[in-house]
Specification:
This protein is of the alpha/beta class. The protein is built from 7 helices and 13 strands. It has an 8-stranded mixed beta sheet. It is globular and about 40 Å long. It binds S-adenosylmethionine. The site of S-adenosylmethionine has 20 residues, from helix 2 and strand 7.
Length: 253
């Protein structure tokens, strides 16, 4: 559920990893032009024109998302509950949702997946994303498109293992009405969106997690670790995907 509010104004320095060079910009994200790019593992990502901001690592979108969100997140809690509730901040390309959908079937694990994005991708992008082909799951293309086309705020049973609900709006105004076991935290980097990496934001996420729940994110900056600790998380540093030394897993003990 979203409380009304203005679209976020992003401002900041774009660092490395997801962003190849350093630029200082002020922009209204929802107005920016996007383009489809191919990352080094052959899978697509989205780049924001004139900024060097990308939705995934240029070293491999599928490789990065699998490593962080599936291997270091979902796999930690598999089979600990009949149904795992996952919240994703930043639905974007839908890659994390697709990888989760695949894992639920492979591991006979029921998942409820809730996600938010301020700015959904247009058809011209999500229809071209090559994830199902690259993952050798062409039969899932229609389910992938369904994730993008389904109505906001309506829960959809994509199959008997995977229920999905998305919302459009700003996370800062989001009101949780469920508790979660895993949070995939996939906002743009703190340099671009400092307002999404504060102690206050992590307190909100901490409150939304069940005891024993985990939050995983690609960002391992010291200021992010400190904000997580302020919120009450126990923070673990884990090895990152190629070209990224560390990622974070924050646990609500
Ligand atoms: C790094 S991209 C990741 C997208 C996605 N997880 C993926 O795999 O494609 C960040 C996403 O967060 C969304 N976003 C940025 N600011 C937001 C906000 N304040 N509230 C909700 N979504 C936001 C963007 O529109 C974008 O889709």
């Amino acid at each position: 559920m979203i409380q009304p509010g203005p679209a976020a104004i992003l401002s900041g320095t774009v660092g490395q990893y997801r962003h190849a060079m350093v630029v200082k910009i002020d922009f209204k994200f929802v107005m920016m032009k996007r383009e489809l790019i191919i990352t080094q593992d052959g899978s697509h990502s989205i780049a924001i024109d004139q900024t060097n901001i990308t939705y995934h690592s240029r070293y491999g979108a599928i490789r990065e998302s699998t490593h962080i969100y599936i291997e270091s997140g979902l796999k930690k809690l598999l089979h600990q509950k009949p149904c795992i509730n996952i919240f994703e901040m930043g639905f974007g390309s839908g890659l994390n949702a697709l990888l989760t959908l695949i894992s639920t079937v492979e591991h006979n694990q029921e998942v409820y997946y809730e996600t938010i994005d301020e700015s959904y991708l247009e058809n011209q992008f999500f229809e071209k994303l090559n994830y199902c082909r690259e993952l050798k799951k062409p039969g899932l293309q229609s389910a992938f498109i369904q994730l993008h086309l389904c109505e906001s705020e309506k829960e959809v049973a994509v199959n008997s293992f995977f229920r999905f609900k998305k919302s459009q709006g700003s996370f800062q105004h989001y009101i949780f009405n469920k508790s979660f076991d895993i949070i995939f935290y996939d906002a743009f980097a703190p340099a671009a969106q400092p307002e999404l990496w504060t102690g206050y934001i992590f307190m909100k996420l901490f409150e939304a997690l069940n005891a024993g729940g985990v939050l995983v994110t690609y960002c391992s900056k010291g200021c992010v670790q400190r904000a997580m600790k302020v919120a009450g998380f126990v923070v673990e540093k884990l090895p990152g995907p190629p070209h990224k030394r560390e990622i974070l897993r924050a646990i609500k003990v």
